[in-house]
Amino acid sequence: KQEVTQIPAALSVPEGENLVLNCSFTDSAIYNLQWFRQDPGKGLTSLLLIQSSQREQTSGRLNASLDKSSGRSTLYIAASQPGDSATYLCAVRLGTSGSRLTFGEGTQLTVNP
Amino acid sequence: KAGVTQTPRYLIKTRGQQVTLSCSPISGHRSVSWYQQTPGQGLQFLFEYFSETQRNKGNFPGRFSGRQFSNSRSEMNVSTLELGDSALYLCASSLGFRTGDYGYTFGSGTRLTVV
Lengths: 113, 115
Known about the structure:
Strand content of chain A: over 45%
Low-confidence stretches of chain B: none
Oligomer: heterodimer
Order of helices and strands of chain B: EEEEEEEEEEE
């Protein structure tokens, strides 16, 4: 059974800091991995999608990496802003599970002005 | 283009009642998945539909059911509601079953409160 773990559970940083969120998964036979952002009481906003054959993806100040062999992904946020405050979730899709996503518990990020 | 639309946004029901939630996927998307989000369990997969057929099902009791229509719109139904069914129900759409290249787009969710 695929398990996804995110560390840390919560993170508070001053504005302008670069930060890294971590995601680990137990089954390396993944199809892809997707990072999402969730604001309180809202749905999920997709940030980055990494296919199993890729090592990283970038979008603006965000960079996500994938290391299948070690079962890890990181989300790097450069020059953090108060508007980045949200819960960040990683989700893994196994190649054998159809479209089912397995989510981590999330990292709650607070960026202080 | 329009995103994934879920209705209603908020719902309050009494224990024992049943409820139907609706999800309209992005135009052209044929796969719809449903997830339940609670503070204790996080995000858990309910089921997935593609071409009006349930393709995958999570570990939820039979009180949770769904269907998909020919226009790809999907509904999920929960019968005999329990207090523990209070959650944010999220719908996600994708281009197609097993097509992972484009990832999943989620709706804003339906907040169900059972009293």
